[in-house]
């Protein structure tokens, strides 16, 4: 008789079996690919007379193991075999924690960072190259991020409402003395907090698909046109928009309050009258605002923030300068936003009673360790350095284009076209085409998906850059007529 145990690829030193009814002899086979097995332990006889006990089978050398087959023969007086559980004995080393929950976007990993602990596409996390997905567990049960040396813990050791998993100094969770930073993998794949009682890590939400949290947010603005109130930016109507009062003399803010902390992945602003200079800022429960994106040379009808993931309860768009041409309506400077999309993770890691957490249909309470043979953040330094140069070139091109827009009326005396008008149909077509290109890539194979994830992971929006180049070409072509 044989029993197969599915495991994650890992440097394994052996397997531990909890017998309910032990056999007379046992043999262990292992597989590194889940299909082809080889002998790891030859037939050996039981040295115990009782039916139920725990037994460890140690391999001669560490093995890369994805699956284990346990062969059993020679029934004892109880006449049959039974196993309560089997667990891998792994050698210490870095790993990724893969969630059992399924997603069309591929495998999901538990990822750490400044925004806390969240679930993210493993490919996307790896493409970012900052090591947020690479963890290591010490003998004391603490799980640390190898890149920055912080440890995962349950904030304040509070399980109320599922609590909040955070990253912080390893000494802090250790000094608390309440086990808030101690974790242990159970034989059934749950990540348990053994010193806090019967609590296990699981995932909340209906799935891992991102949701638009702008819908339903509390939206306010420091300036509005009575005919175009701020509620229009999140009403889902493509024909309505918000507009500021004409000729603003100071900064204008549009703020979205989400009520609770969100893991924000993407922010997309469809402008009606673009700001040339503006900032995207986030805050947590009314505390200090942090700028995550800023530009002084915007010339696009769509702005898209594509990462890194940030945590916040509110988003603010702070507009400092209207666009000289695109931000003009009937001879007046004005800001206008047709719509905002804020995509956030709908799934949130939390803790729950282990038995209750297990009551699901998508294995959201299960986590699997996948070995990471090497972590070299320096390998991404060249890409990040080039990204900084590309962003600087993009900003310079945007500022130059803005200057050209301003100069156009003065060039009329020289026979050039006096000004540029917005061409909504063409702009809308370009936006739709860009989104179709993104959707096409998203539907590709894993390699294409991984390559496509690199740009956003280092803060480069290739679609925005493409649109800027198209706008510049168009402006130069009109100016030369």
Give the overall shape: elongated
| Annotated CATH architecture of the largest domain | Trefoil
Low-confidence stretches: 5-10, 421-429, 439-443
Return the average pLDDT rounded to an integer: 81
**Ends distance:** 84 Å
Q: For this structure, what is the CATH class of the largest domain? A: Mainly Beta
Largest sheet descriptor = 9 strands, antiparallel
Radius of gyration: 28 Å
Name some characteristics of this structure.
481 residues; 4 domains; Jelly Rolls; 20% helix; nine-stranded antiparallel sheet; Trefoil (Acidic Fibroblast Growth Factor, subunit A)
Task: Write up what this structure looks like.
- It is built from 7 helices and 30 strands.
- By secondary structure, the protein is of the alpha+beta class.
- It has 4 domains: 2-90, Galactose-binding domain-like (Jelly Rolls); 95-208 and 347-375, Trefoil (Acidic Fibroblast Growth Factor, subunit A), CATH 2.80.10; 210-345, Galactose-binding domain-like (Jelly Rolls, Sandwich), CATH 2.60.120; 378-479, no CATH class.
- Strands 18, 19, 20, 21, 22, 23, 24, 25 and 28 form a 9-stranded antiparallel beta sheet that branches.
- Strand 3 (25-31) and strand 4 (38-45) form a beta hairpin.
- Helix 1 packs across helix 6.
- The radius of gyration is 28 Å and the shape is elongated.
- The model is unreliable at 5-10, 421-429 and 439-443 (pLDDT under 50).
């Amino acid at each position: 008789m044989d029993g197969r145990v599915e495991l994650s690829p890992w440097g394994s030193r052996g397997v531990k079996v909890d017998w309910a009814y032990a056999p007379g002899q046992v043999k262990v086979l292992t597989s590194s690919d889940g299909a082809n097995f080889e002998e790891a332990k030859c037939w050996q006889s039981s040295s115990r007379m009782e039916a139920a006990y725990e037994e460890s089978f140690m391999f001669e050398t560490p093995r890369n193991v994805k699956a284990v087959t346990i062969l059993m023969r020679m029934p004892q007086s109880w006449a049959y075999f039974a196993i309560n559980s089997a667990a891998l004995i792994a050698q210490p080393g870095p790993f990724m924690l893969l969630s059992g929950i399924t997603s069309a976007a591929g495998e999901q990993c538990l990822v750490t960072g400044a925004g806390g602990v969240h679930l993210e596409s493993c490919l996307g996390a790896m493409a970012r190259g900052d090591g947020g997905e690479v963890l290591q567990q010490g003998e004391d049960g603490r799980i640390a991020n190898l890149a920055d040396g912080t440890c995962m813990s349950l904030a304040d050791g509070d399980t109320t409402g599922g609590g909040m998993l955070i990253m912080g100094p390893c000494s802090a969770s250790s000094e608390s003395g309440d086990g808030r930073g101690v974790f242990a993998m159970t034989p059934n794949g749950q990540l348990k907090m053994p010193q806090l009682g019967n609590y296990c890590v699981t995932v909340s939400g209906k799935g891992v698909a991102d949701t638009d949290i702008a819908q339903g947010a509390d939206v306010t603005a420091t300036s509005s046109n009575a005919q175009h109130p701020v509620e229009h930016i999140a009403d889902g109507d493509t024909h309505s928009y918000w507009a500021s009062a004409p000729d603003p003399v100071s900064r204008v803010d549009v703020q979205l309050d989400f009520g609770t902390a969100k893991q924000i992945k993407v922010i997309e602003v469809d402008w009606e009258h673009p700001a040339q200079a503006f900032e995207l800022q986030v805050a947590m429960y009314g505390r200090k605002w942090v700028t995550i994106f800023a530009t002084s040379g915007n010339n696009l009808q769509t702005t898209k923030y594509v990462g890194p993931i940030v945590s916040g309860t509110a988003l603010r768009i702070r507009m400092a300068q209207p666009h000289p041409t695109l931000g003009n309506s009937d001879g007046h400077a004005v800001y206008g936003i047709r719509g905002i999309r804020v995509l956030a993770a709908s799934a949130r890691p939390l803790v729950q009673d282990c038995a209750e957490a297990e009551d699901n249909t998508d294995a959201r309470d299960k986590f699997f360790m996948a070995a990471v043979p090497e972590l070299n953040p320096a390998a991404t330094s060249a890409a990040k350095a080039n990204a900084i140069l590309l962003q600087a070139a993009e900003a310079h091109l945007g500022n130059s284009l803005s200057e050209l827009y301003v100069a156009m009326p003065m060039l009329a005396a020289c026979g050039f076209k006096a000004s540029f008008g917005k061409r909504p149909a063409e702009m809308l077509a370009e936006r739709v085409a860009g989104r179709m290109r993104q959707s096409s890539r998203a539907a590709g194979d894993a390699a294409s998906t991984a390559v496509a994830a690199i740009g956003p992971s280092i803060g480069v929006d290739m679609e925005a850059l493409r649109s800027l180049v198209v706008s510049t070409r168009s402006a130069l072509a009109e100016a030369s007529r």
